[in-house]
Write a structure and sequence with these properties.
The protein has 298 residues and is an alpha/beta fold. The chain has 2 domains: 151 residues, Rossmann fold (3-Layer(aba) Sandwich), CATH 3.40.50; 117 residues, Rossmann fold. The protein is elongated, with a radius of gyration of 21 Å.
């Protein structure tokens, strides 16, 4: 059954893609066939989250990393934060070195390749290499607008739609066969926003991919720059949306998701991606891709 929306949506339930993949396999990001992934003395996985003053954020990222560890119990999986939360990247790298790992793969739990991924984290790792010359540190790619994360975003939206709008009754359908079974939804996909116009344009791909997947009318908006969530709401209503839902393109709740909610509190807001099974899958794909040269050379 397709979830509510304006078009056909692939019927993929939360975690369905993860359930079809055996532990220790690597898929392509577009859902291609899995291939064996086995490395003796596998590198440690250091998952690096942004960090926040909001305790909900750290709690969510701990749940994310716990799910990653549960899916790969053969790996030494650890969580570190770039800022504002503990443990720090330096602390975790020092612990990994003290535990005599020879290699660790650092997976940024970040949705965009902005300053933190391109400058902050590489600088931290370079300093760590100077402290621990016997520890090899490899930075993996960011999560990005991976198709699996678009599915996770869709799942959060469907859950919010279901909670907000009860299904049409049999009486409604019987009295007017031409009446849609539910409202026409518009989706305001809300991201952090960047000072870089190019970065914001790349983030807009999330809304476009969601439309391609579901047929929903979408608009991208940002918590820290233009266009705002209010503007996205106005555009969607002008194009005929009966209901508008705010879908945060965030991994965890925090001050910025609260700001989005406070801007339009009358609208339904989906949950953040959080500890969705597909987030763990994407993080493990980033780890496996970074480790792949080791597998090929073995």
């Amino acid at each position: 059954m397709n979830p509510p929306g304006n078009g056909a949506v692939p019927a993929v339930s939360p975690g369905e893609a993860a359930a079809h993949r055996a532990p220790g396999t690597l898929s392509t990001v577009c859902g291609g066939p899995a291939r064996p992934f086995r490395i003796e003395h596998a590198p440690a996985l250091i998952a690096v989250a942004h960090g926040s003053r909001d305790p909900r954020s750290a709690a969510t990222m701990r749940a994310v990393v716990a799910r990653i560890a549960a899916q790969r119990p053969d790996l030494d999986v650890r969580l570190a934060f770039l800022d504002l939360s503990t443990p720090s990247v330096d602390q975790v790298v020092d612990e990994v070195a003290a535990d005599r790992h020879s290699h660790a793969i650092v997976v940024p739990l970040l949705l965009g390749s902005a300053f933190h991924a391109r400058v902050d984290l590489p600088g931290m790792l370079e300093a760590a290499r100077a402290r621990h010359p016997r520890l090899r540190l490899t930075q993996a790619e960011v999560l990005g607008p991976d198709p699996h994360l678009i599915i996770a975003l869709r799942d959060r939206i469907v859950a919010a739609m279901t909670a907000d709008a009860p299904p049409a009754t049999l009486t409604d359908v019987a009295h007017d066969a031409s009446r849609p079974a539910g409202p026409r939804w518009g989706i305001a996909v809300a991201a952090v926003g960047s000072s870089s116009a190019a970065a914001n344009t790349r983030t807009g791909d999330v809304a476009r991919l969601l439309t391609a997947m579901t047929g929903w009318d979408t608009e991208i908006c940002f918590a820290t720059t233009e266009p705002t969530v209010q503007r996205a709401f106005a555009r969607l209503r002008a194009r005929g949306a009966d209901r508008v839902l705010v879908a945060p393109w965030f991994l965890a709740p925090g001050l910025l998701t609260d700001r989005l909610h406070d801007a339009l509190p009358q609208l339904p807001h989906a949950e953040t991606i959080g500890a969705h099974p597909l987030l763990a899958e994407v993080a493990l794909d980033r780890y496996a891709t970074a480790a792949l040269p080791l597998e090929l050379s073995a």
